[in-house]
Amino acid sequence: MAEVLFCAKYPFTKSAREFMAGRKVGLAGIRGEALERAERRVMSALKEGEIGRFIDVDNVAELELEAYAVARILLSLLKNRYFINRYAVAESKRASMYLREDSDANIMQVAEEMGIRGEKKGADYVVPVVDYLLFAPGSKDYKLINQPLRSGVVELSKREFTRVLEEAVRLGIERSLPLPVSGAPDALVHAADKIRRGAKGLEPTYEVKFEGGDFPQCIASLVERLKMGENLNHTARWALAVFMLNANYSVDAVVNLYSYAPDFDERITRYQVEHAKARGYKMPTCSWMRSQGIGCSPPCGLPSPIRYKGTGKKKTEEKGESNA
């Protein structure tokens, strides 16, 4: 029972995949109850941004594990990158809830299966800097300069280590979907259609129409990545917000733009944008943008993205309205 409980809590691991492979359940053998759970799992992720815990009784853990596998198929049938990324965020947060309360042995097993080398050292965890940089969250608190680094390893508290694991889970799920699905049974196709109808209107409707090169390539690229449902890191989000504010866009316009993010929270986003506006942050230089991996390629040759010709001068349509 211990094995199936671990797999049900962390269904994205190699252990879970091997457990399901051993059961040899094909598409035609999916149980109706597992399909129902999978539908609820996906809809909860899309609507609420979270997935609840399962009740550890009888065969619920095994059913939960099967539901996760079915949810991945449903998401693949939906063929919607925004839905996939939002689902990945919800799954990673669910995993983080379990990790914060789990044993050191289980935490280290998840880390190993997600490709993160590390070990427990006293009350903390140590991770090779190479692995840390691959999965560190984008917020400034997790920048390497703000972490204790000794002899090539980063020392993290349990809270910090589980947050790094959360990011690894999110990235792993995002990169593993969509699956190549062919010949799906009618029940799965109908379930995917039901989710599509139920999720109608959940996708952000904000539109930005660029005319004649209003924005430099680096900024246009960030907007397009957001519109694809990509979870931009903290630095990229900050740079985009500062650019938009310096180009005379309203706080509402910037908040609406960030509604594309799969982990969008209007209250938090509005607070952060209003804070940036109140502080009067100036747009950083192009060389700084390049140092953060978000510059133009090839370089535009300007001292700052805000100096790009036409920036903030032409009309941009925002939900059908012009914003000068």
What does this structure look like?
This protein is of the alpha+beta class. Helix content is 54%, strand content 6%. The chain is built from 14 helices and 6 strands. The strands form 2 sheets. A 4-stranded antiparallel β-sheet has the order 1-2-4-3. A two-stranded antiparallel sheet has the order 5-6. Helix 1 (2-9) runs parallel beside helix 4 (60-78), helix 5 packs antiparallel against helix 8 and helix 12 crosses helix 13. The chain is globular and about 60 Å long. The N and C termini lie far apart (62 Å). The model is unreliable at 209-213 and 313-324 (pLDDT under 50).
Write the layout of secondary structure elements.
Blueprint: H1 2-9, H2 14-23, H3 32-48, H4 60-78, H5 81-101, H6 104-113, E1 119-121, E2 124-128, H7 129-135, E3 149-150, E4 153-156, H8 158-176, H9 186-198, H10 217-227, H11 234-246, H12 251-258, H13 266-279, H14 286-291, E5 316-318, E6 321-323
Antiparallel strand pairs: 1-2, 2-4, 3-4, 5-6
